[in-house]
Amino acid sequence: MNKIANIQPKREKSNSKKRDYRLIVDGKYNLKAIMQRAYAEMKWNGHYLKTFSNALKEAWIAAHIAMDEYKAEQSMRKAAAAGTLFPKKNLSLSDFYSDPCGNLAMGYVTK
Hints:
The protein is mostly helical. Helices cover 41% and strands 4% of the residues.
């Protein structure tokens, strides 16, 4: 029997697990990702004496920020689809400056 035939190829092993850290999925909080993020944050920053409760609070703050961004993006998409994102108005240069004559030297927007 040939010893070379029994040698298995080396498999590359990674110490880090592939995790889904998306905090928002389809407009809902991903609780599993929030918990994983908190645990990973606690382990990575353990030298700063970070407790799990502090890491969990920070993960929830990040999740709330992500939800706000998601809602803003959805409202922008909805407005763009409806055509109300940029209303069509006949604006002139004098609408943007405090001087009714449209004096560009002033440079202040007050309206």
